[in-house]
Amino acid sequence: MQSQTTLIAARLRAPRVAAIAGILFSILLITSFVLLRRSVPADPLEAGAWLRTRASTVALALNLVPFAGIAFLWFIGVLRDRLGEREDRFFAIVFLGSGLLFLAMLFFSAAVAGGIITAFAAAPDHVLGSATFTFARAITYEIMNIYANKMAGVFMIATSTLALRTGFIARWIAFVGYGLALLLLLSNRNMEGVMMVFPLWVLLVSLYILVGNLRGSS
After folding, report:
1. What is the pLDDT of residues 88-111, one digit of tens each?
2. Predicted structure pTM score
3. What does the mean pLDDT of the chain come to?
4. Using CA atoms, how far apart are residues 210 and 63, in angstroms rounded to an integer?
5. Which of 201, 183, 214, 172 is nearest to 23 (CA)?
6. In Å, what is the CA distance from 200 to each residue of 25, 27, 172, 197, 209?
């Protein structure tokens, strides 16, 4: 009887941990995106005047990214553990691979942006308007607005498909995931605010899992 009680408690805690990790990821990443959007112009070819006045704000936004990434890894790991033997191997691989690729691109873009700030602090007169700054700024913009968004869309499709097959979230959330994933896959580099779609959807999924878990435990 005691072992059965322990197993039930573990099953209740697993989705709760996933939900909390997803909520932390969403809040941290949305906060980071908002700070960056308010500090850095959307034009990837701008000369970098924001480095003189908003570098500290951008540095704060970039410092949130590693913690968001840790929470996202935890979210993926707990969800995979929750799915267990019910998961489809093909979509499970796509689910894991797209999530890790999104995270790698997010970290790489943040590292390049952090490198820009460090280089400016060391030699401000040589960074502004230089070819090196233009290249670093453009590659960060391209990775986040094109490639990372596409991987986020693939992650949403895989997660929504697994949700429909296993029922770990509501069907309507899965269909919302399909629609938003299509938006990400068809988006271009000039669509402002589209990066918010992914963390907002993860927040929706996490809140649904958390509320369902709390109801089940009560």
Report:
1. 677 778 888 999 999 999 999 999
2. 0.85
3. 84
4. 27
5. 201
6. 10, 9, 15, 5, 14
> What is the per-residue DSSP string for 43-63?
-TTS--THHHHSHHHHHHHHH
What are the phi and psi torsion angles at 44 (to 5°)?
-70, -10
| Amino acid at residue number 193 | G
What are the CA-CA distances from residue 99 to residues 16, 21, 154, 187 (Å)?
20, 14, 8, 19
* pLDDT of 6 higher than 50: no
Long-range (24+ apart) CB contacts under 8 A made by 123-132 are 124/51, 124/52, 127/48, 127/51, 128/47, 128/48, 128/49, 128/51, 129/47, 129/48
State the sign of the Cα–Cα–Cα–Cα dihedral 166, 172, 174, 178: positive
pLDDT for residue 12 is more than 70: no
The token pair that represents 96 in the structure block: 């894991």
Q: Please report, for residues 85, 86, 107, 144, the alpha-carbon distance to residue 82 in angstroms, rounded to integers and kept in the order given.
A: 9, 9, 26, 30
Angle subtended at Cα 114 by Cα 111 and Cα 120, rounded to the nearest 5 degrees: 145
| Rounded-to-integer distance, Cα 189 and Cα 150, Å | 11
Q: At what angle do helices 55-83 and 197-217 cross, to 10 degrees?
A: 50
The residue type found at 58 is V
Task: Give the residue extent of every domain in the chain.
Answer: 2-217
Q: Which residues contact 1 (CB under 8 A, 6 or more apart)?
A: none
Environment class of 90 (CB within 10 Å of its CB; exposed 0-12, middle 13-18, buried 19+): exposed
Question: Using one digit for the tens of pLDDT, what is the confidence trace for 52-61?
Answer: 888 899 999 9
